[in-house]
Amino acid sequence: MVKSLVSFSGWLAKNATAFVIGIAVFTFFFPHIFDWVRGNTQTVILGIIMLTMGLTLTTDDFRILARRPLDIFIGACAQFIIMPGVAWTLVHVFHLEPALALGILLVGCCPGGVSSNVMSYLCHGDVAFSVGMSCASTLVAPVMTPLLMQFLGGQIIAIDTVGMFENIIIVTIIPVAVGCALNYFFSRRSFFPTLQGLMPGLSVTCLAIIVGGVISAVHDDLVARGFVLFIWTFAVVFCHNSLGYLLGWFAGRLAGFNVAKKRTISIEVGMQNAGLATVLASNFFAAQPLTLLPCAISCAWHSISGTILAGLYLRWDLRHPAAVQAAEAERAAQISGSVSAEAVEPEAVTTK
Fold this sequence. Notes:
Blueprint: H1 2-14, H2 16-29, H3 39-56, H4 59-67, H5 69-93, H6 98-109, H7 116-122, H8 127-153, H9 161-186, H10 192-225, H11 227-254, H12 259-270, H13 274-284, H14 292-319, H15 321-351
Subcellular location: Membrane
Pfam families: SBF
Keywords: Membrane, Transmembrane, Transmembrane helix
């Protein structure tokens, strides 16, 4: 029974995009199915998603922050400069109404998405760098997201920065910390790998439930204003996400990153934690339901586009095998150098 659940969890993770879109379409025709996904319930569900992220993190993942501070700093700056800046630009270029503007700004001001690590792995990116960026952006989100929303969206509506700070702590930092603690104390227990195997499917299910709740909340507005509203909002989300990928790659190029790092920072910058944006929109802008629409579309589209981008990177690798070999050699040399440095460091300390 347990093995079947783990297999189903893996299958669900591999087909996450189709599952989330399927739930969204289903909810559009049966909007009352997810009426219960509101307020505190939505917050708890996102907390479960972040808990699953914490269960996969180890102390080694956090050591990356100390070992590669410059890389992580560049990545975090790119994350919280590019995406909020692009969101603010698109709000004015598309002349978005206040509710939709708040939604896209929220997505832009949130940290990186929890599935970006998987996408980095699939396209031969720098997975350690990806994990480090995800950790860093999540840790600073309670401060950066409210401040950026105050700066960019304060003219549209009053922003409860303190409340937003507390909410992000509750739905991100605490669940991730609990997950990390469980991993630290129980990772060697026989049941723990099985528990970790169930987490991807649980995470996808929770994300689909959040999207279903959002579609339920905005259903009447979508029906009243027609297909044009959806297409217009999707166009903004598409531009926001695509420019994030592109500008993230150029940020890596300006920083002198190798191919793997450029791919990783591109994905990390472009893929946002739209689930967090959804919960914040529901908790702080409930009077304007359309704020949820860009968040819901981003939840589904970022997974689709991340998969597409990873596939494009892999297709490029197939067409340029010599460049791939050179990149692998460079990465191996860097890993060898870092390992040698760590091995020599204790001796250097003892000889002093």
